[in-house]
Amino acid sequence: MVSSQIVAVAGAVFGLVIMGKADSMWMRILGAAILISGLYCIAVVPRALARRWRTPPPE
What we know:
Shape: rod-shaped
Radius of gyration: 16 Å
Keywords: Membrane, Transmembrane, Transmembrane helix
Largest sheet: none
Number of strands: 0
Order of helices and strands: HH
Oligomer: single chain
Helix content: over 70%
Number of helices: 2
Number of domains: 1
Strand content: under 5%
């Protein structure tokens, strides 16, 4: 689960780098899209993995 968060943070940082070094508006939009998708993965993926891996109820 930690590795998924690390990958999502790396993607968000990559989006920030693209936005910072962009000289055209399209590159800034691409950087913003990568940043937003990284932040979304940080927020949603760990919760979804925890729900999928939870202990089943006793029978």
